[in-house]
Task: structure prediction
Amino acid sequence: MKRTLLNIVLAGILAALVAVNWIGARDYRQPNYEFIPNMVHSVPSDTFAPNANFADGKTMQAPPPGTIPYGMPALPYRATTQDAVRAGIELANPFSATNSVALDRGAVLFQRFCLPCHGATGAGDGPVAKRGFPPPPSLTADHARQMKDGQLFHIITYGQGNMPAHAAQISADDRWRAVLRVRQLQERAAAAATTAKTP
Ligand code: HEC
Result:
């Protein structure tokens, strides 16, 4: 009698297992069951939303002082004319004037970032200058021609007088490529002047 009861119980358990196996068959085309779903889907905070987790109540935190953006190495110069001259002595353009890929890129950069003020040929007649912004001196004049590459790089990096700094918009390598373009425009202007003089 005892054994009959045991067998009935065992048969019941077997039937239950078969039923569970049947009903609970995993469909691999569907995501699996998520146990404690909040550990899978974290609750994000919007960049500009208030945030009680931080002392200043903001989600986006200011980078710690002295943080250097990736690809923008710190330069040991200040934004002064003396340091621009020093940069001219100490720094050399990593790109050669015969590097056509760098030159092409420099031309694009010049068109985007310099032409608005300096004009397509560097003469200082860009559209911004024509609309009242203090016109820059010609980049093909002797003053700029006599500057060393590093000095041009410093001026693009830190700005000069009415010219704003471009370190935040243009990476260091691209600033050197823009210097190549300035040199190219200077050479073209010099060549054109020589041709004009020849009768
Ligand atoms: C918002 C207008 C503006 C933009 C954009 C600009 N510049 Fe200038 N730039 C000036 C002005 C104005 C000066 C004259 C600054 C001064 O008062 O000494 C100048 C001066 C210079 C000088 C020094 C020339 C000299 O003879 O003293 C160089 C070199 C130069 N810019 C290169 C560039 C390059 C390269 C770019 C692009 C990456 C650029 N600038 C973008 C306005 C601009």
Summary: The two ends are 129 Å apart (CA to CA).
